[in-house]
Amino acid sequence: MMEFVLFLGLCFVLGGLAVASNPSPYYGVLGLVVAAVAGCGWLVSLGVSFVSLVLVMVYLGGMLVVFVYSVSLAADPY
């Protein structure tokens, strides 16, 4: 179990680095999803599943709306 928690922590850090270091919004949102899923798994392993559910609904929902907005702005030629 300890190895799984350490793996989730590593995925969380790598996902955060992927969000911060990618200029493309497509790869940035992939890192965001990886970090959010790893963070939720980490919270579930600690026994706070309700907070994990709130993290998925609020954080990922809000950030994916911002991602769709930024992609639509980047795709607009004018």
UniProtKB/TrEMBL annotation:
Q: Catalytic activity, per the record? A: a ubiquinone + NADH + 5 H(+)(in) = a ubiquinol + NAD(+) + 4 H(+)(out)
What's this chain's function? Core subunit of the mitochondrial membrane respiratory chain NADH dehydrogenase (Complex I) that is believed to belong to the minimal assembly required for catalysis. Complex I functions in the transfer of electrons from NADH to the respiratory chain. The immediate electron acceptor for the enzyme is believed to be ubiquinone.
Protein name listed in UniProt: NADH-ubiquinone oxidoreductase chain 6
Asked whether the UniProt record includes NAD among its keywords, one would answer yes
The terms describing its cellular component in GO are:
mitochondrial membrane
Q: Which residues cross the membrane?
A: 30-48, 53-75
Annotated membrane topology: Multi-pass membrane protein
MF annotations from Gene Ontology: NADH dehydrogenase (ubiquinone) activity
Q: Give the signal sequence positions.
A: 1-20
Q: What class of enzyme is it?
A: translocase
Q: Which EC number(s) are documented for this chain?
A: 7.1.1.2
Q: Where in the cell is it found?
A: Mitochondrion membrane
User: Which Pfam families does the UniProt record give?
Assistant: Oxidored_q3
- Keywords associated with the record: Electron transport, Membrane, Mitochondrion, NAD, Respiratory chain, Signal, Translocase, Transmembrane, Transmembrane helix, Transport, Ubiquinone
